[in-house]
Write a structure and sequence with these properties.
The chain is mostly helical. The protein has one domain. It has 2 helices and no strands.
């Protein structure tokens, strides 16, 4: 049982890390190309942050 929840935590961590790095990539390319992508980057980073904290609370409680 504990092992299964550890596996879920690892998967959730990797997925949120991918989403976060995508947001950072959008942020960097947005500043290179113009301000249009930068706004989306903040949205993506915000979603990743909320999702990560939600999963963290869910699987640690």
């Amino acid at each position: 049982m504990g092992n299964d929840s550890d596996n879920k935590m690892v998967i959730v961590f990797i997925v949120s890390l991918i989403i976060l790095s995508l947001g950072v990539f959008l942020l960097i390319s947005g500043y290179l190309e113009g301000a249009g992508n930068a706004r989306w980057a903040f949205v993506v980073i915000g979603i990743a942050g909320m999702g990560g904290s939600w999963f963290y609370r869910r699987y640690t409680s």
